[in-house]
Amino acid sequence: MPGKQSRSARRPTTPYTSAFRDGSTRSAAIVVPLVLDIVPARSMVDVGCGTAAWAAQFRKASVETIDIDGGHVDLAQLQIPRVMFVPHELEQPISLDRGVLIWQGASKSPSI
Q: Does 13 fall in a domain?
């Protein structure tokens, strides 16, 4: 179809700015304790984690995390240990073999 871009063509190509990371970190520091009051999770997956600011806050609360995002993420900007980051193109299916609280990185709305 003319004029229609593929998903990969719409993918952001610029690195996350420090203002974006700082804002995400501040938001997560407020919201994560509220989420954990409602859903006392021990583990979670952050799909579309970006630099993993939200996952870092869950880890501070002793929640085990698995953090997934595409190859566009600059590993030097991760706010979690690199070993916790799973590079995976989000257009492709992924399977996890355990029950977790899933924190959707793009919308930041929790679902179980």
A: no
